[in-house]
Design brief:
Length: 271
């Protein structure tokens, strides 16, 4: 049996939470908006955002006037979310829970719509994750889940991870296939969990960086697998590895501005 992914544990998410909420969440909000549109979320709805991170989709749903319940298993992500809600004075219609998306602490049929953006894809038991969403959302409610197409299709990321592997040849090999990395897989898994009218579509947004150096600097602070490795090795051991990866990226891509198209698979189904 393959090892469970470290990304299915809270530690890497705790480590990146502060950077993630500043650097990543504003970009991911664009995917969240698309998902909210797909479920036609408005002020009359109560939605649940499972694996909410720092509340990426949750805050956008609040802007539409929806009541929001958000859950994550990373205490640091929850801390980020709570700080932002408190700073905006927006806690009345916002319920925040710490917990596992595979065992939701909610009653049956309590929500009008449910979401898990780039979250359920990391659950060790995705079928349970889908079934839990189906359990807590009302009949005819829409559930939307997003995942990534294989990231090795993005040259700058595959170059960075390739250079990392050259530096650390004993790293365990990456999984052969990312979870839910094709429309067919995503539709099959969501349908198998009992959803109706399941459909998946691609949505691409470009991540911009002022230079290759700036991009690598950001990745080495906010990318969960990289930050976890960096934390495990310690800064002294990481420094030459990080420099070697940066040198490889500069060699291949120069130091000009970068625009990296990130393609998500956004899958929706009805309870
Ligand atoms: C890539 S982030 C996505 C966060 C947010 N949904 C967004 O779109 O920005 C993945 C999130 O999933 C959470 N997560 C992963 N597995 C989880 C689980 N079993 N239960 C709850 N949260 C989980 C992590 O803590 C992290 O906040």
């Amino acid at each position: 049996m393959s090892q469970p992914s470290p990304l299915s544990t809270p530690l890497p998410w705790d480590l990146v939470a502060a950077e993630y909420s500043v650097d990543v969440a504003p970009f991911f909000e664009r995917f969240a908006e698309r998902a909210l549109d797909q479920a036609a979320v408005g002020a009359q709805h109560h939605i649940v955002d499972v694996a909410t991170g720092p509340g990426t989709l949750a805050f956008r749903a609040r802007e539409r006037g929806a009541r929001v319940t958000a859950l994550d298993f990373s205490e640091e992500m929850i801390r980020q979310l709570e700080a932002r809600a408190a700073a905006g004075g927006d806690t009345e219609h916002f319920t925040v829970r710490h917990g596992d998306g595979q065992a939701l602490p909610f009653e049956d049929d309590g929500f009008d719509a449910g979401f898990s953006m780039f979250g359920l894809m990391f659950f060790p038991d995705r079928d349970r994750g889908f079934r839990e969403l189906r359990r807590v959302v009302k009949l005819n409610g829409v559930v939307v889940v997003s995942s990534w197409v294989p990231l090795d299709q993005i040259p700058i990321l595959s170059t960075a991870f390739g250079a990392l592997r050259e530096q650390l040849p004993n790293l365990p090999p990456p999984p052969a296939e990312l979870p839910l990395a094709s429309e067919e897989r995503a539709v099959a898994e969501m349908s198998a969990a009992g959803f109706r009218d399941v459909a998946a579509e691609r949505h691409t947004e470009s991540m911009l960086a002022s230079s290759t150096r700036a991009l690598w600097d950001r990745l080495s602070r906010n990318n969960a697998p990289i930050v976890m490795l960096r934390n495990r090795l310690g800064e002294a051991a990481w420094a030459p590895i990080g420099s070697a990866i940066e040198a490889r990226l500069l060699d291949r891509f120069g130091d000009g501005p970068q625009s990296i198209p990130m393609t998500a698979i956004v899958t929706s189904g009805r309870v």
